[in-house]
Amino acid sequence: MIEGSTAPATPQPPQRGGRYVERMTEQLKAQLAQARRWAWPLPQRATSDALLARLRLIERLLWVALILLGAYVVWSVWLTERHPPVIASHSPAVGPESSAAQSPNPEGDRLKELSEYREALALRNPFALSARSSGGRSDEEVKNKLTQLTGVLSVVGINRGASPEALIEHSEEKRTYFVKVGDQINGLTVRAIDQRGVVVSYEGEEIVLK
């Protein structure tokens, strides 16, 4: 060979051992990739199975709670229908005697007012007075009736003002009345209120209440 000249390099034959190693390496990589593909879904599948089991457990618990709630509602409705609640009343208890005492008697009051009105008209009507004196009660009966009517009345106080008034208590009715001249009380007519007391009259007979 001449010095300074370049000669083409002679290619060397490939070695069989190197190709075999490369082929084995590629096969190993392929097997690893395939194994990785098969092994990778396993954790996901296990996780999904565990989650599904938990969801089923929660669903069962919810069903149990729903059944218990329905049973409680049905029991409450049944108990309410059998034993309705009692509402306490704040009004005082009224017995038969107190109710009879408190209940008004409009018929009796109306008759009483009518009789008093008739007596007042009779006292102011001279024709009725003459007819009663001719065929009415005797003086003794009138006096007895007057004593009976005034026996339950007592004067509590007298106001001697421009228009005198008297405070009279009815012992049977347990009530107190303010009266003035011309008023009616217990079938009696108030004729005068002065220093003597309260002058009342019944069918022409007069008496002084003190």
Structure, explained:
The structure is a single chain. This protein is 54% helix and 18% strand. Helix 4 packs across helix 5. It has 2 domains: 20-82; 108-209, SH3 type barrels. The strands form 2 sheets. A 4-stranded antiparallel β-sheet has the order 4-5-6-7. It has a 3-stranded antiparallel β-sheet with strand order 1-2-3, with no helix packed on it. The radius of gyration is 61 Å and the shape is rod-shaped. Strand 2 (165-170) and strand 3 form a beta hairpin. The chain is of the alpha+beta class and 210 residues long. The termini are far apart.
Characteristics:
alpha+beta, three-stranded antiparallel beta sheet, about 20% strand, about 210 residues, 2 domains, four-stranded antiparallel beta sheet, about 55% helix, SH3 type barrels
Summarize the structure.
The chain has helices spanning 16-39, 41-82, 96-102, 106-124, 126-135, 139-150; strands at 153-159, 165-170, 175-179, 184-185, 188-194, 197-202, 205-209. By secondary structure, the protein is α+β, with helices and mostly antiparallel strands.
Mean pLDDT: 73
CATH topology of the largest domain: SH3 type barrels
Alpha-carbon distance between the two ends: 179 Å
Strand count: 7
Q: Low-confidence spans: pLDDT under 50, at least 5 residues?
A: 86-101, 125-135
Which CATH architecture of the largest domain?
Answer: Roll
| Apparent shape | rod-shaped
Integer tally of domains: 2
The helix content, as a percent range, equals 40-55%
Structural class: alpha+beta
Taking the sheet with the most strands, its summary is: 4 strands, antiparallel
| Name of the CATH class of the largest domain | Mainly Beta
